[in-house]
Amino acid sequence: MSWNKESIVKFYASIPTFSAVSCQNETDPSVSCTKSLSITAIKKPSKKSAFICVIARSPADLIREGEALHHCVGRMNYDQRMVREESLIFFVRAKESPDIPLVTLEYSPRSHKVLQCYGEHDHKPSEDILHYVNNIWLPYANKTIKKLAA
Prior knowledge:
Blueprint: H1 5-13, E1 17-19, E2 38-41, E3 51-55, H2 59-69, H3 78-83, E4 88-94, E5 97-108, E6 113-118, H4 127-149
Antiparallel strand pairs: 1-2, 2-3, 3-4, 4-5, 5-6
């Protein structure tokens, strides 16, 4: 599948948008603020799952996520990987708290696999989150992306 501008626009248009509105301190740059983050979920929240998965929409989203979880997603050219169509970056959130970072995952649109999935300080996610990513989100993401490629 080739990720050109048209397919990316279709991809974003195919998934619902959520607004993250909580922000503790907008004037202090050391405090992570997700108010401006437009959260786009690739998996609609369901009664069965406690999680949603949202896609990074800008380099600023990656930086905020990396700072909040103390890992490299905001500083290791992941935005360039997205531009080169090598990977897409998603954020796993609790359905009840979509503005609080839990886990970041890197997805390959070419191989249809999760390349990396890490929580705070590069720790392995909980079994509940891994179950969501591998058994709920990944099949849905692959199905959605295959439809868009058709």
